[in-house]
Amino acid sequence: MDVNLIVRIMVIALLAWFIYSRFAGVKGLKNLSADQFQEEMKTNHNKVLVDVREPGEVKRGYIAGAVNIPLSQIKQRISEIPAGKSIYLYCQSGMRSKQAARILQKNGFRELTHLQGGIMTWNGKLSK
Questions:
Q1: What Pfam families has UniProt attached to this entry (predicted)?
Q2: Of 13, 25, 91, 99, whose CB is crowded by the most CB atoms within 10 A?
Q3: How far apart are CA 80 and CA 83, in angstroms?
């Protein structure tokens, strides 16, 4: 077999794995529409709302009561998220909140929910 062919196959396999790992669902993660997310936020009193966007994005508006722990810092700041509570995550489009859920799940968090489509789909009031 040609070495170049082997390298190409490996690169394609690595690329396919990367794309799959970014877009695949997270087992046990509850995906909610904006309306469902808003309704659950009202009724669940044992929760923590985490905005995983970067601080510059948060300045444009955030959901009231959210704690900002950017995805880029979540591993270092995981101790700030209380265990035993329902964790509600959101970001700009829903991609980073899924990644945050994966990290939290690997660290023992089980009740994880995220805003499908991110804050771009949010039709509720935003704080600044």
A1: Rhodanese
A2: 91
A3: 9
